[in-house]
Amino acid sequence: MTAAADTADAVVVGAGPNGLVAANILADRGWDVVVLEATPNPGGSVQTAELTRPGFRSDLCSAFYPLGIASPVLNALDLQRYGLRWRHAPDVLAHILPDDRCALLSRDIGRTAESLDTFAPGDGDAWRRCYSEWQRVRDDLLHAVTGPFPPAKAAARLVRRLGAADMLRLARMVTLPARRFGTENFRGLGAQALVAGCALHTDLGPDSAASGVFGWLLAMLGQDVGFPAPEGGAGSLTKALVARLIDRGGRVYCSRPVSEVLIARNRAVGVRDVHGELVRARRAVLADVPAPTLYRDLVGEERLPARFVGDLERFQWDDATVKIDWALSGPVPWRAQEARTAGVIHFDADVDGLADFATDLACGRMPERPFVLFGQMTTTDPTRSPAGTESAWAYTHVPHGTTDRDSVRKQADRVQALIEQHAPGFGGLVLDRVVSGPDDLRRHNPSLLGGSVNGGTAAMHQQLFFRPVPGLGRADTPVDRLFLASASAHPGGAVHGAPGANAARAALARAGLLGDAYGSAMRLLHGKLYETAAERP
């Protein structure tokens, strides 16, 4: 780096989507921003490469972005001006049951309702009612979910819109397990499986508290905006974020892992990279890394309150992931015709099967019959592979801490065998296959510790003001001017940019006209939260 680049208003550690969103928001306010990324390329879990063979583009980690296209944070950045284009498959999601019956989610609500009525007459109308309720709360709810905690303004608007009685009903719904949500709203297995399968995009099984709201949120977003993918690959979203930042004077340096956050008088003043070079921060340091990495490796436990360190010991990761990418010579020959036009496919479990899968993971067992999420990328975006072929991927969860390569390969073989059951002849289409276990995913993105992709469990005990530890639910940390900007912070995983945006807003508040008062209030609150009984007067 040149001498002029040794100091900036803000240093952002990590060029994942949250770090890039934070950097863009600060640059919009005229801040000089430097982003330091550990790997050779920006993007974190939002990257694309020709993994299987030339001409077949595979997303290294995430691929479909219902929360991305709906996110108020990303929409405010107007990334279409920087080349982002969304592509949709003809249909959104197909959930294939073990007997090959299939529930279809389409952006055409009539098609969705017709599919669900084949499982239980009347479920189509029930789905329409759920969607009508979603439309009633959609905008305020998305602002509440993606905004800083507590979401006072958005919550107040919801109360005015719904009234006290319906607000209480919404609050109850948020706590429901996906199984209970399904049985309260639908009679047939099709709609119930759609919601429970969407919940398993997190690490929550159908009987976990609050899994219902995650399943409902993704299912309603699928009905509303679909499960789109960026044209050309997930990396197109990263390219747009980087181009926008550079257009505003921001700088991104790759292959520069940060080894330490520099702290003076309990204030973050910059960072040191692994080469020993310093970058000083005049106003803030924002960290798009997992909470344990920030506090243990970059800050050091000795600089943190003892009670905070104790709470960090209880931090829980989400399940690990095994991902398989294929180059296929043709479309997947699913027995269930509805699946042939869907971008995303879930199989091969009903709600009970999903519960068995979640129980195996909770017990640390490798599931013998994995629940699979499958992506048909060329069906969604024809630029992903040559005409007449298919670039496809699948992933399944495995117990956190899985590292044995043989276990990873066996689980990938189980997944492919299940596909063959539901799509006879699939194996004959395979031109190439690449299996990525938890260690491989972490090599792509060092933040995917243990192959966990959501920055920590989505369970109730680690959400809102419990994320990443019991506290304020905000991006502020016990170190002044240091802000947590990763999926370990509220509101958690998925590509929506909210943790990065919340960290940027907190940094702006700290640097504002009332910044000293803000900083004093945060220090006081953190002191009260993490003092022990022995420290109290």
Overall, the morphology is globular
Task: Please identify the top-level CATH class of the largest domain.
Answer: Alpha Beta
Main beta-sheet annotation: 7 strands, mixed
CATH topology of the largest domain: Polyamine Oxidase, Chain A, domain 2
As a percent range, the share of strand residues is 15-25%
What's the structural domain tally?
2
Ranges where pLDDT stays below 50 over 5 or more residues in a row are: 1-5
Q: What is the arithmetic mean of pLDDT?
A: 95
Radius of gyration: 23 Å
Question: What is the correct CATH architecture of the largest domain?
Answer: Alpha-Beta Complex
So how many helices? Answer: 19
Query: Into which percent range does the helicity of residues fall?
Result: 40-55%
**Helix-and-strand structural type:** alpha/beta
How many angstroms does the end-to-end distance come to?
A: 49 Å
State the total count of DSSP E strands. 18
